[in-house]
Write a structure and sequence with these properties.
This is ISChy6, transposase. The chain has 415 residues and is α+β, with helices and mostly antiparallel strands. The chain is 39% helix and 17% strand. It has 13 helices and 16 strands. A 5-stranded mixed beta sheet has the order 7-6-3-8-9, sandwiched between helices. A 4-stranded antiparallel beta sheet has the order 10-13-14-15, with no helix packed on it. A 3-stranded antiparallel beta sheet has the order 11-12-16, with no helix packed on it. It starts with a helix and ends with a helix.
Length: 415
């Protein structure tokens, strides 16, 4: 199980524990019993059922070690293959075809009960992967969770986030489209942060979300749509590491994020007209004028449904806000995570650029975490080195050390 799979499993476990961690559950015992009464589709493992003791163990691990505590432990026999013989595979496949109506988890339990396999020798995951390989896993899909209406009277319980198309900016004779990324607090209607960009990619979301956290603290929940950037592993892991529940709307269900949609409407009716009188000549000017409008107009204007300004509501409860102690601690959380095979010359390619890594990784598949500026090498979830951009000019001047056999061959020729 590689690091990316371990993170997916940890995200699944965090999703089950999040309501407890954020105080949404009044009776933990009843909630665990409810969770354990269902079959869950778990990344890598397939359909699984759990016991309250298992969930309690995960909860304790998260409180002690954070998000990393939810990752499956690395096997002590890592690198050694645990496989079924060909005869065992053929027998299990034939038996499965006879018992096709049983869920995979029940089929595995039947094998154990009959003494066909021993759990210590053949795990459920091994059998599940075999069945999945031959298309012998049930096609049942989990039901979509019921969407409930949110309404909170405490700041930073829920942030809604989204992106909206902004005004065009003319640069060098070309019209460039802009995109406004924003988050809004469900209780106060205060906007923790918002900014226009030329790109609608993840880097824009990352910039706005990090700045919102630094300025206005950590929310308990974030509610966004099903866009690719909002479902990215990087965003999900960052939220889980901060103890934030990440919730997504149903597809094409914009009204479920009513408050952020109304904010975008306010921007269009109250800020955009200012741009018609005097268009922004650059992205920098557009953001400068927008931030000034946001702080001097939107945040200080009495909200009709609140009877107060968004800023006053937020400040009245600021003592309850959980702030970021060290802004620099956010940087590692938002690094993209991918696997790379190290070439024989000790290099890897990231973002179409070559980087050098320590020679001990040559020929291995390693995990790298990176952004536009830096690339780190990770081993078992821990940063162990920093990849260095390849400088072809400098490398051409580096003196290579010849091998002993090659030097000996030259010496023999000279003699």
């Amino acid at each position: 199980m590689d690091e990316k799979v371990r993170e997916k499993v940890a995200l699944f476990r965090y999703g089950l524990l999040a309501p407890v961690l954020n105080g949404q559950v009044s009776n933990q015992q009843e909630y665990f019993a409810q969770i354990c009464s269902k079959v869950h589709e778990v990344p890598f493992y397939g359909p699984k059922e759990f016991t309250p003791k298992t969930l309690a163990g995960w909860l304790l691990s998260y409180r002690r070690f954070g998000f990393d505590g939810l990752k499956p432990k690395i096997r002590s026999d890592r690198g050694k293959h645990r496989v079924l013989s060909r005869e065992q595979e053929e027998y299990l496949i034939a038996l499965r075809k006879e018992l096709r109506d049983l869920p995979a988890s029940v089929f595995y339990e039947r094998l154990v009960d009959r003494g066909e396999i021993l759990p210590k020798d053949v795990s459920y995951a091994t059998v599940y992967r075999l069945l999945k390989k031959y298309g012998l896993v049930g096609n049942e899909s989990p039901k979509s969770p019921e969407r409930k209406r949110f309404s909170y009277d405490t700041v930073n319980v829920l942030w809604q986030g989204d992106m909206s198309v902004g005004p065009y900016i003319v640069q060098n004779g070309k019209k460039l489209k802009t995109f406004l990324f924003a988050f809004i607090d469900d209780c106060s209607r205060l906007v923790p942060f918002a900014q226009f960009f030329f790109s609608e990619k993840f880097e824009s979301l990352r910039t706005v979300f990090k700045e919102a956290l630094i300025r206005r603290g950590i929310p308990k929940m974030v509610y966004v749509d099903n866009g690719k950037i909002y479902r990215s592993d990087t965003f999900q892991i960052a939220c889980a590491s901060l103890g934030i529940i990440l919730t997504h709307t149903q597809p094409y269900d914009a009204p479920s994020k009513g408050k952020i949609e109304r904010f975008f409407g306010t921007v269009k009716t109250r800020f955009f007209p200012l741009l018609k009188e005097k268009p922004a000549s650059s992205l920098e000017e557009l953001n400068r004028r927008f931030w000034q409008w946001l702080e001097e107009d939107y945040h200080r204007k009495v909200h009709a449904s609140l009877g107060m300004t968004p800023l006053d509501v937020y400040l009245s409860q600021v003592s309850q806000v959980r702030m970021i102690d060290d802004p620099a601690s956010l940087d590692p959380l938002f690094l993209k995570r991918e696997m790379r095979k190290v070439k024989h010359d000790g290099t890897i390619s990231v973002n179409n650029k070559l980087y050098e890594v320590p020679p001990r990784f040559i020929g291995q598949k390693i995990e790298v975490r990176f952004d536009e500026d830096v690339v780190y090498v990770y081993e078992n979830g821990i940063a162990v080195d920093k990849a260095i951009p390849v400088n072809f000019a400098d490398n051409a001047k580096v003196k290579r050390h010849r091998s002993l056999s090659f030097q000996a061959m030259l010496a023999g020729k000279e003699e």
